[in-house]
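User: I'm putting together notes for a lab meeting next week and I want to include a structural view of one of the chains we've been expressing. I don't have a solved structure, so I'd like a prediction I can at least talk through. The sequence is below, exactly as it appears in our construct file.
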Amino acid sequence: MDVFYEQELIGAKLIDRSDFLDPAAKGKKKFEQRLDECVASGLNKGIDVLMEEVDYILATKQLTTDYNPEADIDAGRKVPDIGVSDAAVGVIDVVSSHSSMLIGSTDKSTLDVFNQEVGLRLFAAICKHLKRQRISVDGSLKLISDMNHYFKFVQNLKNNELLLYFKALRELSQIYLVDPSDAKELASVIADNERFYGIFRAEEVYEFAERRADWFQVRRDVERAMYGLECNVM
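Assistant: Thanks for the context. Below is the predicted structure for the 234-residue chain, given as structure tokens.
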């Protein structure tokens, strides 16, 4: 359209470039705005479909025993698998394939907007997913591997603001690694706002801590350490 406008209209001196009230100039601007709206709508729809696929992969490929290997009654005392889970691999494969399709086919600003939105919604999907899991100390090693896998993908997007969210997720995964005998350390981690880059409040971290497989065993001691519930009321 720009080529036609420059060569056939301005080049042929049918319109004056400086005349912003010219119907052709106004029509071009209106068409460009409409085109931008259509592109944005299309990207939003594409992101919706992509995130539905992400949710499906997490729901179907994440095994109960990934983050809680003790749930497998036939597992005995096997050495826990600490590699990246099939669910995390599947999620990053599908997200990266969609992102790569836009490279070279759209301008950088549009690609940045797409990656920013996908990254934030991926973060939200992972948080929602974690609140459905039971995570043991042994299983936390695989969880940490998964969070590192997500982090590395986002790191390649070169968006420092977005990267903070996934740094916070990596820190969050550490709350499941704390031994149940060390409730004070766990309480300290939960209450440390700076540790999570301002992404998670202490109340939110506490909600994630409730997904520990041993939560009912450690809850009382953690709350005592956090809120001083061991103090007697006089």
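A couple of points you could mention at the meeting. The two ends are 80 Å apart (CA to CA). The chain has two domains: 47-177, 178-234.

User: Perfect, that's what I needed.
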